[in-house]
Specification:
The chain has 219 residues and is of the alpha/beta class. The protein contains six helices and nine strands, in the order E-E-E-H-E-E-H-H-H-E-H-E-H-E-E.
Length: 219
């Protein structure tokens, strides 16, 4: 297999405050990587750089051989919001995960079928026509995951996906992720116990000025 993610001497700062510096990384396709580290170590920043939400101040990032953002990536940010007053159905939210409708302003039957499959994968198929504000917190998190999965990504990037979930919600999320065979997963979390059985590698991050990051095999 080739490399899913490559970082070469990457650095990034917010308003002159260095967050990541001299970062080198090579994650192979098909890996399930847990990104761990204390608050302020740059976990969310790293994922935003991988997703193409942020651009590095220096160095190079390659996602499946090309600079981010990559169309073969699904991204679930830490603080994604679903506006309660937005007149869209659960199915409509998932369809937003497709870059552009194939039929101008309308989604094709095939695209809608893909969205239904994504909802089935996360256990929300029966709620396709409901509004997102009718969902529980755990269901909303699964909806955001469905939106990331609808594009049938080769790489899935998730930032603290279990932070607002109860035990049942965390177990459901683990089951869903365990079914994503062949997809490279990079997941930032403080909750390493929940995802330990899925992880093939752990990327440990330190504070700026310490060792930037260290990738090792999961135990």
């Amino acid at each position: 297999m080739g490399s899913a993610i490559v970082l070469r001497d990457v650095g990034f700062a917010y308003d002159g405050q260095m967050v990541l510096q001299h970062c080198h990384l090579d994650i192979e396709e098909g890996a399930f990587v847990l990104v761990t580290g204390p608050n302020g170590s740059g976990k969310s920043t790293l994922l935003k750089l991988i997703a193409g939400v942020l651009c590095p101040d220096c160095g190079e990032i390659l996602i499946l051989g090309q600079p981010p953002p990559h169309p073969g990536m699904g991204y679930v940010p830490q603080y994604a919001s679903l506006r309660a007053n937005h007149p869209v159905s659960v199915l409509g939210v998932v369809l937003m995960g497709l870059t552009t409708p194939s039929l101008g302003c309308h989604y094709s039957a095939r695209e809608r079928e893909r969205a239904h499959r994504a909802l089935m994968a996360v256990g929300l198929a029966e709620m396709a026509q409901r509004r997102p504000d009718a969902l529980s917190g755990g269901q909303r998190q699964r909806l955001l995951l469905a939106r990331a999965l609808v594009s049938e990504p080769r790489l899935l990037v998730l930032d603290e996906p279990s932070a607002s979930l109860d035990h049942e919600g965390r177990q459901a999320l683990t089951t869903i992720l365990g079914r994503q065979h062949g997809i490279t997963v990079v997941l930032a979390t403080h909750d390493t116990t929940t995802f330990a059985a899925l992880a093939t590698q752990v990327l440990a991050m330190g504070h700026p000025g310490e060792q930037a990051m260290a990738l090792h095999q999961a135990s």
